[in-house]
Design a protein that fits this description.
Largest sheet: none
Order of helices and strands: HHHHHHHHHHHHHHHHHHHHH
Distance between the termini: 43 Å
Helix content: over 70%
Shape: globular
Structural class: mainly alpha
Radius of gyration: 23 Å
């Protein structure tokens, strides 16, 4: 197939996925009756902003709920809402053009969730090739967590979109030596952090990757500028807070105070985790570099082999012992992940919560999590960046401790790409096996795996995601 025909095919596939995704998810939103309090908050603030541009608070809604006897957090009565305003202002623009009503308030969340489909295709194609790109787009369209978040007037798909955009521009800049790509990456990261402070994680991931793999980037003025752009873009919000709250503006922000307490209470665990990640990836980088400079020796080969075996053993232990229960539910076709409307439903979960929820929502993530934890000698820089970014996002929210699957939505695109890359890699290895019987058996097994994964995801979507009947999941 020539490139022109392939591009036309890709355009139609991605368009079909986005169009069907739009109508399915919008229909699910419209036909559902219950709304989370966050959805009403963003809808009401967007309406206020369309009347008064600077009326960015929840005071009227807070007073209304308080008059009914509802106990509310303090931030409901503050003159400025606790999160930066990008998502709410984008929602206000959508409502201004398409109607000042609840159905149009979901357009931004819906659009951002759908735009990740072509972006994931590009990321998968750049890192692993055309087939992985197409497969990644399909599973991004299918993903239950993304579907649920796209059907809510929540900011999570917006953060995930800007995070993915920042990562994609960084990879493009890295691969094509395109300096302006670093600047675009920084701008996207700035939009992410102006949606929610956790949007800064992608900048931290880029810095971590560059320190481990590409320290030469710190000599590039465009790259350095891109690292400061998110902070510079946050200045108008900081100034607005200062004008409203004065010198106490930091203490008025609940999210910043929670983050500070998390850092102070878990600082040693955080340092340990960062140290482990740094040593692990730095060791792999040194080994890869040495292998490009010298001929591989039997000793190096044996060392890599045993390292791989050790990491394979760890992955096996991780799934069969730590995730044993969740793996059972994942492999049970008619089992649904836990969800609820009760606040604090997941408040007593353990650090493995997110990994368990991921594979219960989609068994296909078993491939991605394995890919995340296995030793990969001589992998490409783009692959290392994707894995490192997914890992950092997951670790951050594990440390955060307030377990909700929507918080890790930013990691989903990277895990989708990793899952598709792992599956495609196994398929290629199966095809290269010379023994016909063994080759056919493995190909059949992998085909059955992906058929089961798709069937399970459709089941979860039909009975959970498409009902749009959950707040905590």
């Amino acid at each position: 197939m020539n490139n022109k025909l392939k591009n036309i095919l890709v355009f139609f596939i991605l368009s079909a996925l986005m169009l069907t995704g739009f109508f399915i998810r919008l229909n699910n939103f419209v036909k559902s009756d219950m709304r989370t309090i966050d959805e009403v908050v963003y809808y009401r603030m967007a309406k206020q902003i369309n009347v008064n541009f600077f009326d960015y608070n929840t005071i009227p809604y807070g007073q209304e709920l308080s008059s009914r006897g509802r106990d509310l957090p303090k931030y409901f009565f503050e003159p400025l809402f606790k999160h930066p305003p990008v998502f709410t202002y984008l929602t206000a623009v959508a409502m201004k053009f398409f109607g000042n009503n609840m159905p149009t308030s979901v357009y931004i969340s819906l659009l951002m969730g759908l735009l990740m489909i072509p972006l994931v295709y590009l990321l998968g194609k750049i890192a692993y090739g055309f087939e992985v790109g197409i497969l990644s787009a399909f599973f991004m369209w299918l993903d239950p967590i993304t579907t649920i978040c796209s059907q809510k007037v929540w900011m999570d798909t917006t953060i995930a979109f800007f995070t993915l955009t920042s990562a994609l521009f960084f990879v493009l800049a890295l691969k094509n030596k395109w300096d302006f790509g670093f600047i675009l990456s920084g701008i996207a990261s700035g939009l992410a952090v102006n949606t929610k402070y956790s949007g800064l994680i992608i900048t931290f991931a880029i810095i971590t990757f560059s320190l481990i793999y590409r320290r030469d980037l710190f000599k590039n003025k465009h790259f350095i500028s891109s690292l400061f752009l998110p902070i510079i873009m946050l200045i108008p919000w900081v100034v607005w807070n200062y004008k409203v709250y004065g010198i106490n503006s930091i203490s008025k922000h609940e999210e910043i105070m929670i983050f500070s307490r998390m850092i102070s209470s878990k600082i040693w665990l955080l340092i340990l985790l960062i140290g482990i990640i740094t040593i692990y990836y730095f060791t792999r980088r040194v080994k890869a570099k040495n292998k490009t400079l010298t001929q591989p020796t039997a000793n190096n080969s044996a060392q890599s082999k045993w390292t791989f075996i050790f990491s394979l053993g760890f992955v096996t232990f991780f799934f069969t012992f730590l995730l044993r229960e969740q793996l059972f539910y994942s492999l049970n076709l008619i089992s649904l992940p836990r969800s609820s409307w009760a606040q604090g439903f997941f408040s007593h979960e353990t650090p493995i919560f997110y990994f368990g929820q991921l594979i219960e929502f989609s068994p296909f993530f078993i491939f991605g999590i394995a890919m995340l934890l296995l030793f990969h000698p001589n992998e490409k820089e783009e692959s290392s960046f994707i894995r490192l970014t997914a890992l950092i996002i997951l670790l951050f929210f594990i440390l955060w401790g307030n377990f909700q699957s929507r918080y890790i939505l930013s990691s989903i695109p990277f895990l989708v790409v990793l899952s598709c890359a792992a599956f495609a890699g196994l398929l290629r290895k199966a095809e290269n096996i010379k023994t016909c019987l063994l080759r056919s058996f493995l190909q059949l097994a992998l085909t059955l795996c992906i058929i089961y994964a798709i069937s399970k995801i459709f089941f979860v979507n039909y009975f959970l995601s498409y009902t749009n009947n959950a707040c905590y999941f």
